[in-house]
From TrEMBL:
InterPro entries: Epimerase_deHydtase, NAD(P)-bd_dom_sf, NAD(P)_epim/dehydratase. Pfam families: Epimerase (PF01370). It comes from Niallia endozanthoxylica. Residues 2-238 form the NAD-dependent epimerase/dehydratase domain. GO terms for biological process: L-threonine catabolic process. Belongs to the NAD(P)-dependent epimerase/dehydratase family. GO terms for molecular function: L-threonine 3-dehydrogenase activity. This is L-threonine 3-dehydrogenase.
């Protein structure tokens, strides 16, 4: 019985529906700090929950008889850099409550980490699974602390904690909320609706990315993996592709020839992106639990344009 926090967010809104299909609608409790009339709220159990309220968090998990906690509620990198104290309170306070709840209910546990854990001291190309984690953003500090806290709960209390260092995630179901990689989603909306996009990152800014269907499958594969295969209890590097705004724009042009892009750099998000790797090494995930991907830049772009065109210009 799975409890998901942040179920209305970019990952949560699709993971909730995916898990309900796999495991049964009544076996997946969605929770978020707000409510809307989306499929997530309509298709199965839903609870309003502020993850910084430990009592409510623990009550909701116990009442639902959760045996798996998927903790997604957090502030992403750009928003966190603008509100660092709020980010610490929500990202770390929420995570501690999630881990405590998992410990109390002997639940299996997942929370996403991010390539945001890497800072300028980590190798930019083929960034290894084990390397220097010295991020220069509050979000990165939260993710490194979160990885260490998850590993602590595994070693100290035997909580079955699992995690993935996600790259930028691209999806058509919900708009992302306040990440540095949001350009890779916004660009598709503007390409279809306006034929033009102004990128807040410089054209040669390389960042690892992944299409949401591959991210969802990676979570399921990791959570269903035999625990004896998991050498890393903090979080595994995973990625599908690495591209720049310029490369993404030329791939979009193959489908929308009139599409144009220009660049107006946002120093905060450019600074965050520049501190991250260009492309990370996901071989540990491939070797330990069989991580694989279906979508590369070409396949992702084709699918995003098809799905969004149907949604935006029916
Ligand atoms: C962000 N989408 O931009 C998230 C993610 C690697 C990027 O952590 O903050």
């Amino acid at each position: 019985r799975i409890m998901i926090t942040g179920a209305l967010g970019q990952i949560g809104s699709e993971l909730t529906l995916f898990m309900r299909k796999l495991y049964g609608e009544d076996h997946v409790l969605a929770s978020d700090i707000r409510k809307n009339d989306s499929d997530v709220v309509r298709s199965g159990p839903f609870e309003l929950l502020d993850v910084t309220d430990r009592k409510r968090f623990s009550e909701a998990a116990r009442t639902f008889q959760a045996d798996t906690i998927i903790h997604l509620a957090a502030l992403l990198s750009a928003v966190a850099e603008r509100n660092p104290l709020l980010a610490w309170h929500l990202n770390m306070g929420g995570l501690l409550n999630a881990l405590e709840t998992a410990r109390e209910t002997q639940s299996k546990f997942f929370t996403p980490s991010s390539i945001g854990v890497f800072g300028p001291s980590a190798p930019k190309i083929m960034t290894p699974q084990v390397t220097s984690l010295r991020p220069v953003t509050m979000y990165g500090v939260n993710k490194v602390a979160g990885e260490l806290l998850s590993e602590y709960y595994f070693h100290k209390y035997g909580v079955d904690t699992r995690g993935l260092r996600f790259p930028g995630l691209i999806s058509h179901a919900t708009l992302p909320g306040g990440g540095t990689t949001d350009y890779a989603v916004e660009i598709f909306y503007d390409a279809i609706l306006k034929g033009h996009y102004t990128s807040y990152l410089r054209k040669e800014t390389y960042i690892d990315m992944m299409y949401m269907p591959d991210a969802l499958q990676a979570i399921i594969d990791l959570m269903e993996a035999d625990p004896s295969t998991l050498k890393h209890r903090n979080a595994y590097n995973v990625t599908s592709m690495s591209f720049s705004p310029e490369e993404l724009a030329s791939e979009i042009k193959k489908h929308i020839p009139i599409f144009t892009i220009d660049y107006k750099m946002d120093p905060i998000r450019q600074g965050i992106a520049d501190s991250w790797p260009d492309c990370i090494d996901a071989s540990a995930a491939m070797n330990d639990w069989g991580f694989t991907v279906q979508y590369d830049l070409t396949k992702m772009t084709k699918d995003m344009i098809e799905k969004l065109s149907n949604k935006l210009t029916p």
